[in-house]
Design brief:
heterodimer; A: about 220 residues; mainly alpha; 2 domains; 9 helices; flat; disordered N terminus; B: about 180 residues
Chain lengths: ~220, ~180
């Protein structure tokens, strides 16, 4: 499949010439300060917006399926180097939020600093925003239609299954010992049955695992000495 | 002030989403359905279904959709609903934006940091539990009124777990079955 038609962006590219000039000094400052790879090709803001809107629009379901598309779009244009890509994915996964959006923020920054990352982020959320608004407006009229109700009666159990499956897939990867399974189970019971806010649980788990990791590192350093 | 409440709630959701779209769904479910009671389980399930079928990341789609629905259910006019969508969508990406930019500037320090890795490996099992909780909470009488819905659940689970079926196809098949069975 080839998603890389360039025509609309090229049309926008012409308009963006002046904009790009006006920001020249600003961008120059970022390029020097943060030592962004100088061999990379400068991308116009409109082009960044267009490419990340494309990435946002084709991210259907989860973000993982879209990694090759994102890589293709960004690396092929020479905006980022192929060898940097695994690091970017790893960082985007560890930062809070959604993979596709995090990659957009990161790649946008590497291309044109803070402004580049704002443009890339807006691009990646714009298709979602517009499409969902249209659907929400249209669907409110159909909600009580008998046929629509029958369709959604069939869809609802399916959706619950589609949440349960990735949960178990994540568990297979992340839960390497009994303790991890215990944390999963306790979290599940606290949130589902005792209505505890997930945020409290995440904060507590983060503080405990940070302390443990810090302690382990300090003991390892002592052993090294 | 509902916009401010929506904004802070979705900002917190964005901030604590670790592990991608399904982690975000579980947080949205807990905050919007269980804690704030803005929408019920049935409506939430429908929104998730639509969000999974439409282009764009599931987390962004459902944040946008819920912003609209919360305002709509309180009887607000269309423009106010759009403003609701706008505030939830921006709020949910803002924490990522701040944190990823922060990481960009301290790139080398985060790379191969064992403490950071330890922190992540500790949080992931909790996220697994959160997503499991979201699935349990959505198993209501309304979503599962009879044995047919449990058969659909089992079929979708099997297709997705063993068959590695595309979620969109599974949802479409669920909709078709609904037309036939009900």
């Amino acid at each position: 499949m080839n998603f890389s038609s360039d025509t609309p962006a090229d049309g926008l590219h012409l308009i963006s010439g002046d904009l790009a000039d006006a920001h020249y000094f600003f961008i120059h400052y970022f390029f020097i300060t943060f030592a962004v790879n100088s061999r990379k090709i400068m991308a116009s803001y409109w082009k960044i917006l267009w490419v990340f809107a494309k990435i946002g629009a084709f991210t259907i379901g989860g973000g993982y399926a879209m990694i090759p598309l994102i890589q293709n779009e960004i690396v092929r244009r020479g905006w980022l180097e192929e060898k940097d890509f695994p690091d970017i994915i790893a960082l985007a996964q560890s930062a809070p939020g959604l993979l596709a959006v995090n990659i957009s923020i990161f790649a946008g920054y590497r291309m044109r600093g803070v402004r580049g990352s704002i443009v890339a982020t807006l691009g990646s959320i714009l298709p979602s925003f517009l499409i969902i608004l249209l659907i929400a407006m249209a669907f409110s009229g159909f909600q009580d239609d008998p046929t629509v109700r029958r369709i959604f009666q069939g869809i609802r159990p399916v959706v619950v299954a589609l949440i349960a499956v990735p949960m178990l897939q994540m568990a297979q990867k992340a839960n390497r010992n009994i303790l991890a399974w215990a944390v999963s189970l306790v979290t599940m019971v606290l949130v589902a049955f005792l209505k505890v806010s997930p945020i409290y649980i995440l904060v507590i788990v983060a503080v405990v695992s940070y302390t443990v990791a810090k302690y382990r590192e300090s003991t390892r350093k002592k052993e090294d000495r | 002030m509902i916009y401010l409440e929506l904004f802070t709630t979705f900002f917190m959701i964005g901030l604590f989403t670790i592990g991608g779209g399904y982690a975000m769904l579980s947080l949205i479910q807990a905050q919007v359905v269980t804690i704030h009671n803005w929408i019920d389980e049935k409506t939430f399930t429908d929104i998730v279904a639509i969000s999974q079928m439409t282009p764009g990341p599931v987390g962004i789609n459902s944040a946008t959709y819920i912003g609209y629905t919360v305002l709509q259910q309180s009887g607000a006019p269309e423009m106010m609903c759009i403003l609701g969508s706008f505030s939830t969508t921006i709020a949910v990406v803002l924490p990522s934006f701040i944190i990823v930019l922060g990481i960009c500037r301290m790139y080398s320090r985060f790379k191969n940091n064992t403490v950071f890795e330890g922190l992540m490996s500790g949080i992931k099992p909790a996220v697994v539990g959160l997503i499991g909780a979201a699935a349990i909470v959505l198993m209501t009488k309304e979503n599962f009124p009879d044995w047919k819905s449990w058969v659909l659940f089992a079929a979708a689970f099997a297709a997705s777990w063993w068959g590695k079926a595309n979620p969109i196809i599974v949802i479409l098949a669920g909709g078709m079955s609904g037309l036939i069975l009900y």
